[in-house]
Structure formats: C-alpha cells, structure tokens
Amino acid sequence: MFNILEAPFMIEMIRTVTNMYAHGWDERNGGNVSLLLEEEKIKDYVNTDAVIRTIDIPFDATALIGKYFLVTGTGKYFKNVQYDPEKNMGLFRIGKDGHTAELLWGYNDGGRFTSELPAHLMSHITRLSVDPDNHVVMHCHPTNLLAMTYVHDLDEKKFTHTLWEFSTECIVVFPDGVNVLPWMLCGTNEIGEATAKKMETARLVVWAAHGIYGAGKDLDETFGLIETAEKAAEVYMKCAALPKVNTIKDSELKELADFFKVTPRQGYLDI
After folding, report:
1. Record-annotated residues binding Zn(2+) (predicted)?
2. CATH code, 5
3. End-to-end distance of the chain based on CA atoms, in angstroms?
C-alpha cells in the first residue's frame, strides 16, 4: 500500500479545506466537505476489506451502497486538517444495509463524520441523478453571502439576479442560479431533504442566516462556484446602502450567456 497522505485526492482535499479556512468561511468547526471517490482511486492506499469500525447513518443511504467518501469530521476545525488529517477526516464506504458507514481510514480519535452528513449524502444522491460526474458537496459560511440573507429578499429569482448583476462572471459560472432555503434547524434529516430537493435545479443552495451548499465535479470547481458567488455578494454588500448608478442589464447578461454558450435559468432574465 502507498501512503494515503500522498494520494492526489488527499492532497487536494487538505489544500481545499485549508484554503476555505484561510478565506474565513469556516470559523471554529464550521463547514464540511464530502468527496465521492471511485474504488480505483483508493485501492492502492487503503485495504477495502479491512473495516476499522462501522458508524450508524441516521437515514436511508441505500442509493449509495458500495460508494466511497472522504468526509470531514464532526466537531473538527478546518485549520487543523493539514496537521492531522487522520484525526480530522475519514474515508468510508456505505454498507450493504444502506444505514452504516464502514470506516476504512481516519477518525482515529474515535470521531465520526460531520453532523451534516444527511445534507451531504442526500445532495450527492440528487446531483448524481442530474450529473453522474458530480463528486463533491461542500458547505461553508461565506461572510457576505451570509450577510446578504439578512438584508435581501430570499426569493430565488431575485437573489440569483442580484448575484448575476453584481459580477460579470456569475451568469457564466452558475447560469443555473442559486436556490435558497429559509432558516431551518441544521444537522437534521429535514434540512438534508430540503437541500437535496433544491439541488435538483441548482448547484448552489443558500441556507438563510447560516451559509451555503455547493456541488460540483471536483474540489476546484465547487470551491470556485462558491467563491464566485461570494465575490458578487461582497460587492453587493458594499453597495447595498448606496444609490445604484450602473448595473449589468438583462440584455447584457443574455449577451454574456450567448457568448460563453451557457443557458440562463428559464424566466430569470426579463428579455
């Protein structure tokens, strides 16, 4: 077996969560990331027949039986991941009963996966049905997107349009828009189900007064998706109390979409 800490997927995961912390998106033990991995990518780094222990999953994950996930741990600080990955993350397989995680590596202090696992795995199930190449679900607390939920209408069309309008790149990066949930109790199956439902039509789901979920093909894409939305929210928050003199018109947003060959969410542009 090769050293799992030298595996490309592990190096990228550590770099990503470290960068998320550096951006100020994941204070204390806030935030969580799950990475879906093919057996081919992990078989040289872990013995898939050597289950360390099993951990109960509090919902039905039957749709993911046999799939492997690298997931940040509950109560763990992203700032510590780079120094002790094996304590702060875990690699597990969804067991044959669909209700257990078979731990193959990590959580070596007796810990377990993030309390937000319902939202992660349910979102993986949804996104895989939309895009079989989806491998990442990422949750964090970007400051300006969070602030925006306190001062902006939570209507999804209006919220999306503001982000598109406040940064040229937004309609290109997330033409599918942003979906929004009102405040809900976190860590529950209910918010997991609601998030997964929203993931049917968009890769970004804002949790009002809490944070955001993003989904994508890889860690870079998902990080960049959130990063782009957060930049637009930052510009909006700096301008929100000032008279708006200029904007990106809907006709110009359409021009952007046509040039970059993306399809804006239907009905979100008034043209």
Report:
1. 139, 141, 210
2. 3.40.225.10
3. 58
Q: Any binding-site annotation on 139?
A: yes
> How many Å apart are CA 116 and CA 155, to the nearest integer?
24
* pLDDT tens digits, one per residue of 140-195: 999 999 999 999 999 999 999 999 999 999 999 999 999 999 999 999 999 999 99
Give the Cα separation of 179 and 196 in Å (integer).
11
210 annotated ligand-binding residue: yes
Count the alpha carbons within 13 Å of 269 in the hemisphere toward its beta carbon. Answer: 22
129-140: average pLDDT: 98
Burial string for 212-243 (b: 16+ CB within 10 Å, else e) reads bbbbbebbebbbebbbbbbbbbbbbbeeeeee
Cross-strand pairs, 105: 91
d(CA 219, CA 111): 24
Cα atoms in the 13 Å half-sphere on the side-chain side of 9: 26
Task: Tell whether 83 and 122 lie within a shared domain.
Answer: no
Given 64, 89, 114, which residue is the final one in a domain?
Answer: 114
Residues annotated as catalytic are 116
Q: Tokens standing for 134? A: 């989806």
CA distance 234 to 214: 18
Whether residue 232 is found in the same domain as residue 262: yes
Beta bridge partners of 214: 138, 204
